[in-house]
């Protein structure tokens, strides 16, 4: 099964417009992130359910030293109001489809934040495509992202760790073998 998506003209990064959502395929990311705030997220994913834990969100222009400092000061998720923490929502069924078929992630956990300066609504990390071949080219003739997958459905699971009597999300996405 091959899914093909045209990339947005002029974008240097692999970005598609999928049903009004600008999606960045990010090889450096480790978790799906919605970066346009909770209000717009709920419009696109009205069935999403807020989870009772948060995700520690690194990257987005912050240094590793800033993250380390945050983790040193961190004591309890419930008592922290930080730019590093993002609410987690579970989308019951997230589907990417094209003429070549579809891939569905069940209960996809997404960190929801408000980082409008990023320019993308949704960041999909490469680990979501484990077991698939994800190719991207953007030159004068070829402006596509191609996902080749032997199966049509993938599942997401979460792993929680306990720290100071608080649940903290360690991995937001893993693939069932």
Topology record:
Elements: E1 2-6, E2 15-18, E3 21-26, E4 33-34, H1 38-44, E5 49-56, H2 64-73, E6 85-98, E7 101-112, E8 122-125, E9 133-138, E10 143-148, E11 153-155, E12 159-163, E13 166-171
Parallel strand pairs: 3-8, 4-7, 7-11
Antiparallel strand pairs: 1-10, 2-3, 4-8, 5-6, 6-7, 9-10, 12-13
Q: Total number of β-strand segments?
A: 13
Task: Kindly provide the radius of gyration, computed on alpha-carbon positions and rounded to a whole number of angstroms.
Answer: 17 Å
Shape: globular
Please summarize the sheet with the most strands.
8 strands, mixed
What is the oligomeric state here? single chain
- Which regions are unreliable across 5 or more consecutive residues at pLDDT < 50? 77-81, 155-160, 168-177
Structure description:
With 177 residues, the protein is mainly beta. It contains two helices and 13 strands, in the order ββββαβαββββββββ. The protein has helices at residues 38-44, 64-73; strands at 2-6, 15-18, 21-26, 33-34, 49-56, 85-98, 101-112, 122-125, 133-138, 143-148, 153-155, 159-163, 166-171. Strand 9 (133-138) and strand 10 (143-148) form a beta hairpin. The chain is globular. The two termini are 19 Å apart.
What can be said about this structure in brief?
The protein has 177 residues and is mainly beta. Helix content is 10%, strand content 46%.
């Amino acid at each position: 099964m091959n899914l093909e998506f045209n990339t947005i003209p002029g974008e240097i990064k692999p970005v598609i417009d999928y049903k009004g959502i600008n999606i960045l395929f990010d090889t450096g990311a480790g978790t799906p992130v919605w970066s346009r705030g909770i209000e717009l997220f709920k419009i696109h994913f009205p069935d999403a359910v807020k989870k009772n834990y948060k995700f520690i969100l690194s990257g987005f222009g912050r240094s590793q030293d800033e993250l380390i400092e945050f983790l040193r000061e961190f004591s309890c998720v419930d008592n922290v109001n930080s730019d590093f923490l993002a609410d987690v929502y579970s989308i019951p069924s997230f589907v990417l489809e094209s003429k070549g078929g579809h891939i569905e992630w069940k209960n996809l956990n997404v960190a929801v934040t408000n980082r409008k300066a990023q320019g993308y609504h949704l960041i999909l990390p490469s680990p979501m495509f484990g077991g698939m071949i994800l190719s991207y080219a953007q030159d004068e003739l070829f402006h596509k992202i191609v996902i080749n997958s032997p199966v049509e459905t993938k599942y997401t699971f979460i792993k929680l760790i306990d720290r100071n009597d608080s649940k903290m999300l360690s991995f937001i996405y893993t693939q069932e073998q």
